[in-house]
Each structure stands twice: as structure tokens, then as C-alpha cells.
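task queued by scheduler; priority normal; single chain, no ligands, no partner chains; default sampling; output format set to C-alpha cells
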Amino acid sequence: MKNRCVLPLLLILLAVSPLLKGQRIYYSEIEKDDNRQMNFEIIGKVQGNILVYKNYRNKNDLCVYDNEMKLKNKIRLDFMPDRVVNVDFVAYPDFFYMIYQFQKRNIVHCAVVKMDGEGKKAFDAYDIDTTQINSFGDNKIYSTINSEDKQKIMVFKINKRDEKRYVFTTLLFNAALELQKKSRWAVASSDREGVFTEFLLDNDGDLSFGRCGRSGNRDYINRFDLLVKPAMEDTFPVYNIKLTDKTLDEVRLKVDNINKRIIINSFYYKQRRGNIDGIYVVTWDKHNGKIFSENTFAFNDELRADAKAENASLRMAFNDYFIRNIIPKKDGGFLVIGELYYSTSRSGGWNRWDYLYGYNSFTPMDYWYFSPYSSFNYYRWWDPWNRWGGYSSTRHYYENVAVFSFSSDAKLEWTNFIRKTQYEDNSDVTLSYQLFNTGGELHFLFNQLERRSLLLNDQSVGPDGQIKRNPTLRNLDKGYEFMPRFGKQTGARQLVIPCMTRNYICFAKLDF
């Protein structure tokens, strides 16, 4: 009788044993060229393999890792020229597209190649488009964006023809990379209106972005227009969002594909060069071409006390917060996530404007000089915010994360804070956080200094706003420092994060 009971019990234990193990971490091995000067991007999981693009000087490689991060193959991408200006990837379960730019003489080429999960080309690389530039022009011309369902891909470029007009060229493709529509259109914009938000492509193939206007050379935003270009049309409407007595900070946009809306968010000021007073939220209905909901939420002293950094005053509590993420909800509501960031330096004071928009000069064919969103989550050696050396007196601080939940009618439902204190000298590559969405919860992975070592922490936020401090991740080998914000979610409960060890870069796969 006892033996009959033991067998089913053993079967149950075997079935649940993977669940009892919890999270697993697999590290890739170090390669000689994987030093900290390497540029890289985690492409994702394709045909069961983890793919990582690596660039070091004039070498371009595709590394294929198995499920335990063992290197299966390293493919030298010989078809790429020595000097590549920029590389973008659009990954699918069975293949991926690599869209890259390079210059030959005074011609900038935008080329594409399709590859499978083993690194085999489906076709030879070919040019999507070309642009002639002068000797002193910037050669990073093209940008690539894709829809949330990846059924639409857009390659576009922006040129400034004169002091009052920008010319846009857009190429819209489907998932088979078949050209659906090529458009060329002009946007009137003076130098004071030369700040664009991020560019978004929805599942219908419509392009959306914002145009911001300033009253002075370095003033904050006092005019905002939403531009929406329908996929198969050459014209586009311009919608002015009336700001009344508000002055905006950075403006962030997000497409809500389920409810066919565009979510617009910004911190705001009641007076110029004052302190951030609250958050301004708008949802725009695509079908009706008008505002669906709008609200202004002013921060009270209780919220400011929760938000402020150590030794900061209440009135300045939100002055160094930046909106990092906007997450739509099925019911039409959305989450807004902001992070506290600032730096100190002997060479000069901290300037929020410089962090957002860089120096005040114009590069006629690179709209990223007007947008703060181009490379915060992508590791590039030449990115000025990711420098390892440079100004030895600069210290970066990344602290609390604020989470705001809004209903479909833009009313605040709840707010909460992820508590963290991070700082690093000369570089910020191990700082900030990675957002990991498991469906029922949002996990925030970030490093915390404990006993002189950086440990990867996991805190999650549930639908009701409650924060759960999860146990410290196991199998964190000593000597590895994670760079969470450069990671990528590759599965429902899987994440790949780059690490540093002995001045080299490797990659860790986390299975939850």
C-alpha cells in the first residue's frame, strides 16, 4: 500500500520540480573581441536561438547562441562595408531583417538583408533607398520603426530644405518587405518648432509624431501639434493640442493599438523656469480625429515627499524625473513610468535641457538631435550618455521610479514608487532598470550596491499598484555586473541581459 502511494508522489515531484527551481541564469563565454569598446544589440530569439549583433571597429558579426547561451556559430558579415553608419533589426520567430546604412563617396545607402535563426541569408543584401549628401552633411539619414505586431515596417528620412520647411520621405513595407507606399511631404516648422517627439507606427501603418514649439531659444514647450499620416495617403492632418496656461517639459507618445488611440504625456510647469507642478495626459481618438480624454494632475505634498531624492526639497521633487515608459491597458487606461535621474560634474552644472535635446545646433538630416529618445536603451560605444571615460568628474545618479496608473478617461487611479539608489562615476551603463512584462505583473530589474557588489534586484508591480519585493535572483556569479537597461525580453518569462566581467562583455539569459 505504501509503495502505491510513493510512485504517484514521485511523479508529482518530478512534474513540479522545474517550477521549484525558479529562475535560471545561463552566461555566455567571453570572446577576445568582446571588450567594452564593442557595440552590440540583442536581436532576440529566432528559431529557438538567441541572436546578438556585435560590431568592433570594422568587424560586424552575428553570434548564434543556444538555449544555454553556448556559442553555436559566429558569422562574419562580410557583405557589410567596413564603415556602417547605423544598424536596425526587426525580428520574427523564424527570421529577422537587418536594415543598415553606409556611405560610398557622397551617396548614403540604406540596405536590407533577411536572415534566419542560424544566420543564413534568405537573399543577398540590396538597397532600399539612397541619398546624395554634400561633403559636410551628416551621414546618419535613415531611421527604421515598426508596428507593435511587426506587420508594418517604415524607413524614413527628414531633410531641411529651408528655414521654415522639413521634407519627409517615408517608405512603408509589409512583413514580407514588399513596398506598400512611398510618400514625400513637407512639414512647416521654424527653428523654434524644430523639436519632434519619437516617431510611432501603429498596426494600421499610420505614422504619428508630435511637433513642439518654443517661445525662446531654450524655453520649454508652449505649443504642441500632433501629426498623423494615414498609411496610404500622401497628405496628413495636423492637430493642435491647446495647452492654455501650461508649459510642457518633454512630450512622450505611445500608440494604443487595441483602442485605436494615441497616448500623450508630459510633465508640466505653471510658470517658465519654475518647478514641475504635475503631469498632463491626453488620449487622442484616431477614428474621430479629436481628444478622447484629457486631464491635468497636480502633485500634492504627500506625493512629492514620496518622490523626492535625499536632501531635496518638496517643491523640486519632480524636477529631475523623466518619463521612460508608457504602457497601454486593455480597458483603455495606461501606465506612465518616470525615473529620477541627474548628474554632478566639476566641469559644469546639471542641465535638464542639455540632457533632453543636446546642444542647440542643427544637423539638417538627423532628427535625433531634436529628440531625447534615440539611444537610451541601445548600447553604442560612441553614445555620449554611455561613455566609459571622458569627463572623470561626472557622477550619474539614477534613483526612484514613479508609476502612475490612469483610467480610460485620464483620471489618476493610483501611484506608487520603486525605491532605489544608484550612482556611478564616468559611466551609467549598469544603472537604471529593465522592464519585464509577465502579463500579470510588471517586473523592474535593477542593480543595487550591497556589500560593495552590484546585485540584480527584482521588484514587481501588480494591477492594483501593490509593489512586491521578490527574492534576490539566485545563481548570480561573482564578478558579473549586469547592464539591465540594454537587455531585451525574448520570451514570456525570458530575458537576455548583457554583463561586464574583467572589462569584457558577455550575455546572460534569465529564465523565470
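post-processing summary
- The chain has three helices and 35 strands.
- Helices lie at 2-21, 301-307, 352-357.
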